């Protein structure tokens, strides 16, 4: 068996290929995260992807973040691509939106991507897929993208767990360890993300605690704008719940794109039945209003009762803010809650000018965020629960980090592999 991992020592942009003598699959085809030194992605062209995917039976995506699916539009039609059912709906809606961009060459690129995305195959949790002699079973995880999965890969008598991006402190994290214990157990190899190794100082709140803090802010501010990822369902739910539970008289607003995404989440996660047979109201977003100048009734309602509005850092939103901010009474200062990673604001190498421009529109800006990634405790728990027989391969991490620092038992420490090598004569590990 051969395992090849591209770009293991950076956050995002990973490509993992697992091959037996008879078949070969790829997990994730990620683009480098934007705004980074390695911004120029050498794989971002048809030729490079045709080379990487040659002879491949299938590509499986853990989730819809660009640093995991960003190169999918280059994949030749002959290679089938697989993603979660809801994830597919979200990316199709996202690329439909991108097709409206004014630049003609962007439009062509995104139209082609939309066509490819709409042809993707889907998979379901705990339902194995077979590619030659490789069996892949997806298991649901909590992450800042909904419908995210880790994969158990079984072939040639070996069991490999690829975690993708995951965390232990979201609403949907409670099944993480029970799922590993009940369905996965001990593995031979663990391929695991390590994003938080470089962010050990970050405060980690549970989504529930974050939602409570949002409620406190909403008690002080009537007019609340929230800047978070438009596809981070659990985060969107935290602000929705803070509003609906404590201030049901306040409308929830978004633009048409965000409203469509929330409607997808309501119709899927919001209707999902628990083992008790009940569906969760946590992810039912209910009526989302879109602001229109002519809707006098909505304008009066917003000014009188207050509101929560999901915003994005786009020119369109600046125009919208030009219209909304003047209708609010001067004595009530609106609040912008920034609910994303602080590095986009205060780190030179990852700074996002559009995000900063949005913040400059407000005098009151508060950051309220928690990570979408596994804390050191969560990483340790997964390592111990899967107790890998041969190797732990850390990926999706800053190159300066040391995975041994998560403090796992010495026997597991010895199994951390970060350089290319042959294990047990029949297991080739290659880092590119
Ligand atoms: Zn990622
Ligand atoms: Zn991700």
Automatic annotation (TrEMBL):
Q: Which InterPro entries match?
A: Metallo-B-lactamas, RibonucZ/Hydroxyglut_hydro
**Which SUPFAM superfamilies does this one have?**
Metallo-hydrolase/oxidoreductase
In this protein, which residues make up the domain named Metallo-beta-lactamase? 12-195
Q: Which domain of life is it from?
A: Bacteria
Protein name in the entry: MBL fold metallo-hydrolase
């Amino acid at each position: 068996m051969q395992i090849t991992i591209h770009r293991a020592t950076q956050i995002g942009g990973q490509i993992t290929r697992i091959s037996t003598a008879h078949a070969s699959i790829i997990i994730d085809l990620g683009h480098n995260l934007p705004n980074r030194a390695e911004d120029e992605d050498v794989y971002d062209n048809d030729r490079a992807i045709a080379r990487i995917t040659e002879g491949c039976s299938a590509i499986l995506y853990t989730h819809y973040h660009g640093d995991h699916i960003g190169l999918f539009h280059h994949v030749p039609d002959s290679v089938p691509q697989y993603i979660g059912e809801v994830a597919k709906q979200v990316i199709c809606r996202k690329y439909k939106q991108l097709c409206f961009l004014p630049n003609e060459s962007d439009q062509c690129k995104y139209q082609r991507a939309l066509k490819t995305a709409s042809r993707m195959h889907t998979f379901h949790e705990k339902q194995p897929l077979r590619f030659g002699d490789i069996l892949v079973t997806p298991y649901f995880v909590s992450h800042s993208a909904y419908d995210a999965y880790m994969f158990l890969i079984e072939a040639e008598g070996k069991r490999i767990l690829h975690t993708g991006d995951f965390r232990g402190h979201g609403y949907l994290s409670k099944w993480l360890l029970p799922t590993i214990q009940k369905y996965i157990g001990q593995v031979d190899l663990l391929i695991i993300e390590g994003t938080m190794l470089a962010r050990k100082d970050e405060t980690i709140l549970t989504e529930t605690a974050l939602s409570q803090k949002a409620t406190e802010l909403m008690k002080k501010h009537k007019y609340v704008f929230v800047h978070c990822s438009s596809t981070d369902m659990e985060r969107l739910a935290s602000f929705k719940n803070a509003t609906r539970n404590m201030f049901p008289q306040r409308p929830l607003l978004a633009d048409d794109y965000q409203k469509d995404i929330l409607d997808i989440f309501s119709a899927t996660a919001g209707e999902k039945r628990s083992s008790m047979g009940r569906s969760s109201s946590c992810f039912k977003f209910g009526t989302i209003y879109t602001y229109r100048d002519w809707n006098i009734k909505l304008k009066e309602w917003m000014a009188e009762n207050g509101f929560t509005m999901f915003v994005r850092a786009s020119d369109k939103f600046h125009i919208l803010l030009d219209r909304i901010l003047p209708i609010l009474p001067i004595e009530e200062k609106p609040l912008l809650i920034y609910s994303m990673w602080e590095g986009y604001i205060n780190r030179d190498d990852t700074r996002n000018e559009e995000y900063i421009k949005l913040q400059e529109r407000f005098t009151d800006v508060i950051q309220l965020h928690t990570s979408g990634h596994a804390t050191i405790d969560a990483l340790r728990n997964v390592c111990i629960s899967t107790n890998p027989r041969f190797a732990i391969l850390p990926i999706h991490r800053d190159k300066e980090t040391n995975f041994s620092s998560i403090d796992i038992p010495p026997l597991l420490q010895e199994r951390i592999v970060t350089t290319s090598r042959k294990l047990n004569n029949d297991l080739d590990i290659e880092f590119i």
